[in-house]
Amino acid sequence: MQVTGREVWTIIHGMGFGAIFLLAFAGGLAELYSMRPEWMTAEGMKTRVSRMKTGLWVMAATVWLTVISGSFIVYPWYRAAPPEGTADLTNFPRSLLLSQPTTAGWHTFGMEWKEHVGWLAPIAATVVAAIVSYYGPEISRRLGERRVVTIFFVIAFLSAAIAGAFGAFITKAAPLQ
User: Fold this and answer.
1) HSE (CB half, 13 Å, CA atoms) of 24?
2) pTM for the complete prediction?
3) How is the chain split into domains, by residue range?
4) By the 8 A CB rule, do 24 and 58 touch?
5) Tens digit of each residue's pLDDT, the chain (177 residues)
6) Which of 8, 28, 91, 118 qualifies as a cystine partner to 114, CB 3.0-4.6 A?
7) How far apart, in Å, are the Cα atoms of 177 and each of 4, 10, 62, 100?
């Protein structure tokens, strides 16, 4: 079994950074949900918020690494144009997808989602980390702010999960080799 350098970067991008983000998201959402003043002491709240801030900033950094590695390392390989007269498009995933009507939608919709909507994940994750860092333990008593954080959390998760699913399907249809 042989793995190319491009495949390694694809793995780091999707299964490495992407998976860490999704795991951090699950932990952060559970922490946010349980952040209720009636459920813990003031000292427990400080400890939880400190742990949550660290986790949220790690989550935000990881999703930024996912998007940056995808946009500037993996994506140029995906988008490379084949030389004139190339019949075998195996090493040119975008062109391979667009060459067949049955797979063209993976690029025209799936990759467009990843290119444009996928950027919501790191932005929303950074907003979540910033809000929790700003309010600290006080956020447990601010229902409105917790709701905003939850909404941004969900936006980050959904945009990343959908982009990840499209990435997996696109890689299945036209692997980057």
Assistant:
1) 26
2) 0.87
3) 5-78+88-173
4) yes
5) 788 998 999 999 988 998 888 888 888 888 888 877 777 777 878 888 888 899 999 999 999 999 999 999 999 999 999 999 888 998 899 999 999 999 999 999 988 888 888 888 999 999 999 999 999 888 888 888 888 988 988 888 898 889 989 998 998 888 888
6) 118
7) 7, 10, 24, 19
